[in-house]
Amino acid sequence: DPGAAVISTNLGSGDANRTITVGDSVNTSAELTLNGTITGTTNNNLTLNGPGSGIINGNISILNGAGTSKDVIFSSTGTWTINAKIEITDSISINTGVVNATVGESLDASNDVVIDGTGTQGSAIVNISSTSQVHTGDDFFIQNGGEVNVSGNGGIGTGTDQLQIGVGSSASAAAAGLL
């Protein structure tokens, strides 16, 4: 039972892919709170993994230069609440769990945001409650059991090139995307 932890210092991703794995605890609703910023300038990604839940209060910025691996990947089965800007040169992938996007540009990928579940409806959920746009990049995909709920006036964003629902790996109606 890991309890709750807070990281308030700024973190750099360095020259390698980084994974933050968060365990689940019965004693807290958020096992990890990230208050510091996370930055990166190399062609690497940041993965949030594990059964635990977390809160992101510090900006995440993985930018600069060309590359196709400057990603933030949510592979956690817990719930992550984003109260800060996530700005990525490539893509943001939400593969499992729940992500609450509460502020503008909290899912701001220059390329795509991909909500790609595990083939079961609701296996990857994004709740958007921001009063300003959470994404202004290229495409926004909801597929393979992914689900997006919008309750704020800001929504996905007018700069989004395409909103694609139920494409790619959505092989059946049960696995289709849901908006």
Strand order of the largest sheet: 1-4-7-10-13-16-18
How would you classify the helix and strand content by structural class? mainly beta
Provide the helix percentage: under 10%
Assembly type of the chains comes to single chain
| Count of helical stretches | 0
Mean pLDDT: 86
Low confidence ranges? none
| Backbone CA Rg | 15 Å
Percentage of residues in strands: 35-45%
User: What distance separates the N and C termini?
Assistant: 35 Å
Shape: globular
Order of helices and strands: EEEEEEEEEEEEEEEEEEE
Q: How many strands, which pairing sense, and closed or not: the largest β-sheet?
A: 7 strands, parallel
Number of E strands: 19
Write a structural description.
The protein is mainly β. 0% of the residues lie in helices and 40% in strands. It has strands at residues 5-7, 11-12, 18-21, 32-34, 38-40, 46-50, 54-56, 60-62, 72-76, 79-82, 86-88, 92-94, 97-101, 108-109, 113-116, 124-128, 139-143, 146-150, 162-165. The strands form 3 sheets. The chain has a 7-stranded parallel beta sheet, with no helix packed on it. Strands 3-6-9-12-15-17-19 form a 7-stranded parallel beta sheet, with no helix packed on it. It starts with a strand and ends in a 14-residue tail after the last strand. The mean pLDDT is 86.
